[in-house]
Amino acid sequence: MADLHPEADRLAQEIELMAYKEFQDKELYPRGYSVVPDGVEILWETPDNDLGYVRPWTYELQCTGIFNTARYSVIEASTKAGKTLACMIWIYEQAVLNGGANKNFWWVGPVSDQSDIAFRRLKEFIPKDLYVANESRKFITLWNGAVIWFKSGDKPDSLYGEDVYAAVVDEASRVKLESWQALRSTLTFTRGPVRIIGNVKGRANWMYKLGRIALEGDDPDFVYAKITAMDAADAGVFEWKDVWDAKKVYDDMSFRELYLAEPADDGGNPFGIQHIQACIVPRISSNEPVAFGWDVAKGTNWVVGIGLDKEGNVCRFHRWRDSWDATIKKVIAHTGKVPALVDSTGSGDQLLERLRNDGGRNFTGLVFSTRSKQELMIGLAVAIQNGEIAYPDGPIVYELELFEYAVSPQGNIKYAAPQGYHDDCVDALALAVKRWRGMQAVYTGATPISIEQTSPWKI
Ligand SMILES: Nc1ncnc2c1ncn2[C@@H]1O[C@H](COP(=O)(O)OP(=O)(O)O)[C@@H](O)[C@H]1O
Ligand SMILES: [Mg+2]
Question: What ranges do the domains of the chain cover?
Answer without folding.
Answer: 8-45, 60-260, 273-443
